[in-house]
Write a structure and sequence with these properties.
globular; about 5% strand; 9 helices; about 280 residues; two-stranded antiparallel sheet; two-stranded antiparallel ribbon; mainly alpha; 4 strands; about 70% helix
């Protein structure tokens, strides 16, 4: 009963985290189905918790940092790690995975003749568990934390609260680079376990809206990014906010460029020719 009460208190204290979590579950089930979603969630959450538990005791893999326990009794903890913190890794890893898929999945030529606002992508098992998707996902996962962690470190200036600290602050707005290495380690381990499971599970039923379903996860990635940039600007950290914005704009531009289905010159000319012939 105490755990249930603390869980409800956690939702009341961190509603934004659970909104992101709900968005993750909805978009993941749409894209990969429930059997894969709960495995992805469990693997990434356990990996994140073990890594956080380890780092707060021996500095591996995130480097040394400590939770100060300021919200004990107000939200759910597992040992010394807040539940909301370790669970955040799950939806952030999935969101990074979706962005990586948008950049690395091959185009589906069988759907190319159908008019669409976005380019159709082929969501086959070899493509979605490839080494390139693996590497890009891990990079984007650590990359978004370069916006999240600096503002979270200043949680006493917004509604997160001052819940942790680094005994030896780093040069990136107080965050040590070892922290980002730790995020990459969580991503590497989680996907190394999940991808072989994905290959062994029954094949996903074919659907012709892969890109549209991916947009849900991509929206989650940039929704989390926008939320954290918003908090950064709100507390008056303009240089930090602009730095994070300029870091992520090139990736966003690349995603848009790859997915938006702009009519080619040849197809426009061809369609113009057909229309002209209709009047001859």
């Amino acid at each position: 009963m105490d755990i249930l009460v603390l869980f409800l208190k956690t939702i009341a204290l961190r509603p934004y985290v659970f909104l992101f979590l709900a968005a993750f579950l909805f978009s993941a089930i749409k894209l990969i189905g429930w059997p894969r979603t709960w495995r992805f969630w469990l693997i990434s959450w356990i990996t994140a918790f073990v890594c956080e538990f380890s780092s707060t005791r021996n500095g591996i893999p995130f480097g040394w940092y400590f939770y100060n326990g300021s919200t004990v009794g107000q939200e759910l903890y597992f040992s010394n790690v807040p539940f909301m913190d370790s669970i955040s890794f799950s939806f952030l890893l999935f969101a990074a995975y979706c962005v990586a898929l948008s950049l690395r999945l091959p185009f589906d030529s069988s759907q190319a003749i159908e008019p669409s606002l976005v380019r159709p992508l082929r969501f086959d098992i070899d493509a979605r568990t490839s080494w390139s998707v693996y590497a890009v996902t891990v990079f984007l996962f650590a990359f978004i934390d370069m916006v999240i962690d600096p503002v979270a470190l200043r949680g006493d200036r917004w509604f997160l609260g001052k819940i942790y600290y680094y005994p030896d602050p780093g040069w990136h707005f107080g965050v040590p680079m070892a922290n980002y290495v730790g995020w990459a380690v969580v991503g590497l381990i989680s996907l190394a376990v999940y991808f072989p499971l994905d290959r062994r599970l029954p094949s996903l039923p074919p659907h012709r809206a892969t890109t549209y379903r991916l947009l849900l996860g991509i929206g989650l990635y940039y929704g989390v990014l926008a939320f954290n940039l918003g908090m950064t600007f709100w507390i008056g950290e303009w240089f930090m906010g602009l730095s994070g914005l300029l870091m992520h704009l090139p990736v966003l531009a690349l995603v848009i460029y790859r997915l938006i289905n702009l009519p080619s010159t040849s197809s426009t000319a061809s369609s113009s020719g057909i229309r002209s012939e209709e009047f001859v």
